User: Which sequence fits this backbone?
């Protein structure tokens, strides 16, 4: 699947409107500054708690207290350590010393190498850390991580979309080896079969979202059904890009905090919140193009820019959303997809 970030479907500010660069290297206009300041203030207050919680170790307990901390947001200075610990990437790196560097020195598949090389310059053109003129420039690190992973997991190799995931990991960790092992945790354990050639995991989760919408937001499900809108048409970029360039960077990182700690159910919670909040607007759509345009619009604006408020709304749903429910729906959707392919 070919993924185009910052394409014509996503509003991007012109260079003349750029006023500043955020802490991650992304250029942002003045309108984002107040929300970012509020977000950083909220996260800074929790920094001491996180320092005490982590205490320089590679372990994070799975407790209600820690889950509450994660959902309120991990301060940027502790984010890499928490992701590594919660995902199991820290343990994997410790059990496989030298593995990453041996992959860099291996004989690589020329097709994978060419595909990776072609996407390097397309990755985050609005980020100062990925420009040729930057010192250091993250492009070389990005190339190394993707090439090493392609050799490490030959069932996946390289798929467009992975470059943006690896890019975000490098922005946070500033470390190739840690980014590699976080990629391994994401693609091998948290989101299996998202980036394989048949993308069965991705197809399955899009179908699962459709089932959840049918149960929880039936008026939206009805209008999409009436206009024969496939879920892959409106949410595929949400899932394969893990909301990168779909939602503001700080909001995406808050989502990833939960992704590494709680697993993939956060992807469904985000989608349900976006759709539920805008259900009246979507329900009034009169055509397939109008529905597609609305699904682009609902990922922009104040609702998603205030990441603290947005994350609070995600977890306000009565009854929650359990992995047991998702697992059952996945099995149903997986069988449906496989049966359809046999016909």
Assistant:
């Amino acid at each position: 699947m070919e993924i185009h970030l910052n394409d014509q479907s996503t509003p991007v500010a012109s260079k003349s409107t750029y006023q500043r660069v955020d802490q991650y290297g992304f250029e942002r206009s003045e309108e984002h500054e107040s929300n970012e300041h509020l977000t950083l203030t909220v996260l800074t207050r929790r920094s001491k708690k996180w320092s005490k919680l982590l205490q320089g170790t590679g372990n994070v307990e799975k407790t209600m207290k820690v889950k509450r901390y994660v959902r309120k947001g991990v301060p940027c200075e502790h984010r890499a350590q928490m992701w590594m610990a919660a995902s199991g990437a820290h343990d994997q790196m410790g059990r496989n010393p030298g593995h990453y560097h041996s992959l860099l020195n291996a004989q690589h598949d020329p097709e994978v190498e060419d595909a990776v090389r072609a996407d390097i310059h397309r990755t985050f053109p609005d980020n100062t850390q990925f420009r040729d003129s930057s010192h250091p420039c993250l492009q070389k690190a990005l190339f190394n991580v993707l090439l090493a992973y392609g050799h490490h997991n030959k069932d996946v190799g390289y798929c467009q979309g992975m470059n943006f995931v690896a890019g975000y990991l490098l922005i946070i960790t500033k470390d190739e080896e840690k980014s590699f092992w976080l990629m391994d945790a994401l693609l091998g354990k948290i989101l299996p079969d998202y980036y394989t050639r048949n993308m069965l995991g991705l197809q399955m989760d899009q179908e699962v979202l459709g089932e959840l919408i049918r149960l929880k937001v039936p008026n939206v499900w009805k209008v999409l059904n009436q206009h024969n809108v496939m879920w892959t048409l409106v949410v595929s970029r949400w899932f394969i890009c893990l909301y990168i360039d779909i939602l503001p960077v700080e909001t995406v990182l808050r989502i990833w905090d939960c992704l590494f700690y709680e697993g993939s159910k956060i992807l469904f919670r985000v989608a349900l919140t976006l759709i539920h909040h805008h259900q009246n607007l979507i329900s009034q759509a009169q055509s397939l193009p109008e529905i597609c345009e609305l699904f682009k619009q609902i990922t922009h604006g104040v609702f998603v820019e205030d990441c603290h408020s947005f994350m609070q709304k995600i977890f306000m749903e009565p009854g929650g959303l359990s992995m047991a429910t998702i697992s059952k729906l996945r099995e149903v959707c997986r069988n449906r997809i496989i049966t359809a392919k046999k016909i």
User: Anything to note?
Assistant: Residues 323-342 form the longest helix (20 residues). The two ends are 23 Å apart (CA to CA).
